[in-house]
Amino acid sequence: MRIPAHSVCTAIRDDIVAGVYERGGRLTEELLARRYGVSRVPVREALRTLEAEGFVVTRRHAGACVAEPTEQEAADLLEMRMLLEPLGASRAAQRRTEAHLKVLRGLVRLGQERARRGNSEDLRSLGSWFHETLAQASGSPALTSMLTQLRHKIAWMYAVEAPANPVESWAEHGAIVDAVARGDGERARAITALHTERAGTAHRLRFPGGANGTDRVRTSQPPVNMSGLRH
Q1: pTM of this prediction?
Q2: Lowest-pLDDT range, 77-81, 120-124, 194-198, 208-212?
Q3: What percent of the chain has pLDDT above 70?
Q4: Please, which contacts does 167-170 make with residues 24 or more away whose CB atoms are closer than 8 Å?
Q5: Are 218 and 22 in contact, with CB atoms under 8 Å apart?
Q6: Which sign, positive or negative, has the C-alpha torsion 167, 198, 71, 157?
């Protein structure tokens, strides 16, 4: 079975975000094909996509390498998210479906329950799911795609501290959903802007000081079974 290039792309991107491949390290087609158990063709296609997304760069005499974004580029990502997340919430207030609302309300209930219990690991994944669903509710595939890419890049470049007051944070999530449910785009935009701004203060650069060009690919990683990836 031929593994789709987008599945290989997802696997490589996830490993870059997780730090399996270090900044500036080479990404050889042979190594990647062996790790994911695929031919070099989908790897080549995946690297082209990741280069377009900004995760990979092509260097003369070195080939594909993990990108080394600057601190300014990382800061720009947070600023872009602060502009686009509120836009997505405003659009969601006009275009959401009942299915979107059901998922969003369920996530808020779970988030508020976990916040009271202090389970920070669950809260992180629930928060990601919430914002992904909110973006999808905007009814704009282009905006959803941009926000998804931003989240991937921000997760790669920043470590995120747990909210000082998770109960308050999830109350903001609930207020966003209430505004979206009422079709109040301006309120949804305003609350999301405040929420995104507060969340931004919890981000800390994983690689302060800029790129040094000395990182290399970790070649001791075990192969990845790609046989179950069909989408």
Answers
A1: 0.81
A2: 208-212
A3: 88
A4: 167/112, 167/115, 167/116, 169/115, 169/195, 169/198, 169/199, 170/108, 170/111, 170/112, 170/115, 170/123
A5: yes
A6: positive
